[in-house]
Amino acid sequence: MYLLHLILCVLHVQSCVYLSLTENCINMTFKNNPLEQAFRRPNVNLRSNPFTNQYWTTVSHTLPALLYDGYLTLMGHKPRMMKTITRLHKAMVVLEYFTSHSWVWNTDNVAMLLSHMSPEDKKVFNFDVRQLHWAEYMENYCMGMKKYVLNEELSGLPAARKHLIK
């Protein structure tokens, strides 16, 4: 189902999604709705150059995680950040192909299908992504990840905001 949704979304040239919009939406969502017990606020930067991406991944993820794990070890606690960063990097590798390439498709068939649908069918089978509000979509996506992937309750947002300010 998700693959079909992705294909239909990207088929419409009129509703092009740019990486800068995606970055901004995700960053603003996590600024306004921080993760519980976050070490720092997530900052999404999608880059198409693999060398630049590797450099910033090392500088902003791996080195801080190593330093924090060193601190935890010195304080007698179990290191945990490199394990977390490794999981994050695995997820990033999955997305890398899609963020570092672009495609152009012919959308004539989708446009033809939309033009032949009745107004009632357009309401029932709404796949015209020109009507999609990408900022709202991305915010809902991030909040869904927070709740269903990270198992964080949305009722904990005030405490998370206070924790991040510290």
Give a written overview of the molecule:
Helix content is 65%, strand content 0%. With 166 residues, it is mainly alpha-helical. It has a domain at 49-99. Helix 2 (19-32) packs across helix 7 (134-149). The protein is extended, with a radius of gyration of 20 Å. The chain starts with a helix and ends with a helix. The relative contact order is 0.16. Residues 1-15 have low confidence and may be disordered.
Label this structure with key terms.
oxidoreductase; 166 residues; NADP; FAR; mainly alpha; signal
Number of strands: 0
**What's the rounded overall pLDDT mean?**
78
Question: Ends: how far apart?
Answer: 41 Å
Helical content stands at 55-70%
Flag low-confidence runs. 1-15
SSE string, helices as H and strands as E: HHHHHHHH
Rg calculated over all Cα atoms:
20 Å
Shape, principal axes of CA atoms: extended
Number of helices: 8
Largest beta-sheet details:
none
Q: From the helix content, strand content and strand pairing, which structural class follows?
A: mainly alpha
Strand content: under 5%
Keywords: NADP, Oxidoreductase, Protein kinase inhibitor, Signal
GO molecular function: protein kinase inhibitor activity
InterPro entries: FAR, FAR_C
Pfam families: Sterile (PF03015)
